């Protein structure tokens, strides 16, 4: 059985084809082919994602990318058994493009369609890696819009242990980067600049670090960065900018690491899965690895290229649900999108 998956929740159009092991046989679904188009260059001029432009670009890209995926796999549409798409959360118009194309294709082929939760895609993306995790585990989900710690007992069994009360970690990276005059999306740019800086140069707050709960707050950090940027004046030196970038990154990473350790301690679990765009951050990976080795905890990451949005994670999440008989298949040609959707309700 093969699943064609579509991702279009924000600023990346992703399409991928995943194959399940033959019925009754154990094993992980396998990625056969994938293609991705990032809209970053298009949105950069505006300093952030422009929803209407995002939707229009998804429309332009989705069919050529689908053809590319099938050609890579040397298969045709008749070889696809299920069509998966990101149902939410995300930008309503952008979601509608992927959902509309997926459900139309499913109807034309007489095959079922299935809506996937975007964060479930991120969460299960490490199962596409060479070193997949085993259930149960604690998941640190750090994307542009979400920062959550979760207890994951199985596919579809998600208990939120803690989450951000304001900005997400990715947002903290992006907003701080913007204050430093870096292009969108700021996370990777800020972390690059931070390589030249000293992490102890500026004293920045670590909100809720000692709250004793696995919750987060990053809005205050952004304000503190703004204060420092103002103090540096109109022409900060390259070194000052790098120092502030390094200090900002260190503050975000320290909170993420401490809270992950707290969640691991509270649950008694010895396995951590990191997913979402911020999971690509090199300092976060180094610090988590060091902290977890000391505590006998295994850490799993998606492949670097699968940290940010992609179609493979959507096809994979659908495939893992199909294996368990818990995919919400629809064959009536109807669909909806859920711009806001709690993962614990998925
Ligand atoms: O998961 P994702 O691709 O999209 C959402 O679902 O939100 O995450 C995007 C976020 C952005 O905030 C981006 O700045 C951040 O991930 N990001 C990074 C890095 N790469 C991406 N943040 C810090 N360091 C990175 N290397
Ligand atoms: Zn995402």
What are the main properties of this structure?
TsaD, 19% strand, acyltransferase, binds 5'-O-[(R)-(carboxyoxy)(hydroxy)phosphoryl]adenosine, tRNA N6-adenosine threonylcarbamoyltransferase, transferase, 346 residues, binds zinc ion, five-stranded mixed β-sheet, tRNA N(6)-L-threonylcarbamoyladenine synthase activity
Describe the model.
The protein is an alpha/beta fold. Helices cover 42% and strands 19% of the residues. It has 10 helices and 11 strands. It has helices spanning 40-44, 51-73, 92-109, 118-124, 169-179, 186-194, 219-232, 238-267, 282-294, 311-324, and strands at residues 2-7, 12-19, 30-38, 82-88, 113-117, 137-142, 147-154, 157-163, 271-275, 298-300, 329-330. The strands form 2 sheets. It has a 6-stranded mixed sheet with strand order 3-2-1-4-5-11, with helices on both faces. The chain has a 5-stranded mixed sheet with strand order 8-7-6-9-10, sandwiched between helices. A hairpin with a 2-residue loop joins strand 7 (147-154) and strand 8 (157-163). The radius of gyration is 20 Å and the shape is globular. The relative contact order is 0.19. The site of 5'-O-[(R)-(carboxyoxy)(hydroxy)phosphoryl]adenosine (KG4) has 20 residues, from helix 5 and helix 6. It is found in: Cytoplasm. Substrate binds at residues 141-145, 174, 187, 281. This is tRNA N6-adenosine threonylcarbamoyltransferase. Fe cation binds at residues 118, 122, 309. It is an enzyme of class 2 (transferase).
